[in-house]
Amino acid sequence: MITQKDILFFSKNVAVLIKSGIPLAEALEILSAQITNGSFKKIVKDIQKSIENGNSLSKAMSAHRVAFDPFFTGIVTIGEESGTLDESLNFLATELSKDYYLRQKIQGALLYPGLVFGATFIMGGFISLFILPQLVTFFDNLDIPLPLSTQILLAFARIMNSYGILIFSLLGLIIALLVLSVRLKLIKKMWDRIVFSFPLFGDLLLYGYLARISKNVGVLVKSGVPLPKSLAIVSDTTENITLQNGIKHALAQVKKGKLLSKGFEEYNTHLFAPLFTKMIQTGEKTGKIDEACMYLGNYYEEEVDTIAKNLTTVLEPVLLLAIGLIVGFVALAIIGPIYQLTGSIQ
How many CB atoms lie within 10 A of CB 206? Predict the structure, then answer.
């Protein structure tokens, strides 16, 4: 699998080697010897052979979209046409580095609740399958009336004793099917639409996408790429289908001679909020749409940073309270009848 770090490594090192006066084909040969990812090494060698056969770097890259998306090859094309390929690659390395750290912030914010839920699921499964069924026999032998909490716990324990393995197997199968089904176009389309409605996490994901979309459009327009082509490139590189369709809708309106801001506003005011559309509109009026997009990119990056920092603060007490209530209920259900039995013996 080719990662963003591989592309970042490629951009930085090729830029340095070209700036040092080393021919491009030789620079790629030197670089391929340092790459540890087998799949990416093969791609770099194929690009090297293509260049030795007389093709440009952008054309050679366009045959490997799995590694180099239209945004990347578009910036490389501009660098080749202007004779500043090393600067374009260095610029790409900088932008990729920012995008990488943005993704890391989002993943880091989602990691903590994911770990807590995962650990809770594993421990809960272990207790349900191996500990609680042992309590059934123990409490059945007690000749005392059991509290309601204990009766509920024992009913759950009996279900786990009889069907526990089947229940957890089905849960695992359902989770696996959900993960696999998201890759199907129809399911992914539905998922990409509802994911932004999730409390707390929805805004985090949306702002992350908007930051990348805004910056990429701003970078391309600033580099001299016409706005319609810039939107088409960014649409191709956007992973979320709902936002991708929004960009395509806005592009269609631009081709009809309408304002870009109007196109976004017509599509969805929740995804493309008034702040987003008004800032684009200001850029259109002043003729500085690239600056407006770059401002939006920086703004949404800061919003992602703020949400990521606050997410742990908000979730931690909620998760601790939920786990505490479950542990307290189990402890009360087990200790209650034992305390009652001790009192009756005395």
Answer: 24
The pLDDT of residue 342 is 64
Q: Are 131 and 330 in contact (CB under 8 A)?
A: no
Nearest one of 316, 321, 298 to 116, comparing CA atoms: 316
Minimal CA–CA distance to 303: which of 114, 106, 112, 107?
106
Contacts of 304 (CB under 8 A, 6+ apart): 102, 105, 106, 204, 207, 208, 211
> What does the pLDDT read at residue 16?
87
Instruction: For the chain of 346 residues, list the mean pLDDT of each consecutive stretch of 10.
Output: 85 87 89 88 92 90 87 87 83 83 79 76 74 70 72 79 81 83 80 85 89 90 88 90 93 91 87 90 91 92 85 77 80 73 58
Contact 237, 70 (CB under 8 A): yes
Cα 149 from chain centre: 41
Residue among 311, 325, 335 at smallest CA distance from 147: 335
SS3 18: helix
Alpha-carbon distance 346 to 31, whole Å? 81
> Do 274 and 286 contact (CB within 8 A), yes or no?
no
The one-letter code for the residue type at 192 is D
235 HSE (CA, 13 A, CB side): 17
Are residues 205 and 102 in contact, defined by beta-carbon separation less than 8 angstroms?
A: no
pTM: 0.75
Give me the domains of the chain, ranges plus CATH numbers.
Answer: 4-98 (1.20.81.30), 102-346 (1.20.81.30)
Q: In this predicted structure, what is the pLDDT of residue 293?
A: 92
What are the start-end ranges of the H helices in the chain? 4-19, 24-34, 38-52, 57-62, 70-82, 85-126, 132-140, 148-181, 185-194, 201-222, 227-237, 241-255, 260-267, 274-286, 289-345
Radius of gyration for the alpha carbons in the chain, expressed in angstroms and rounded: 28
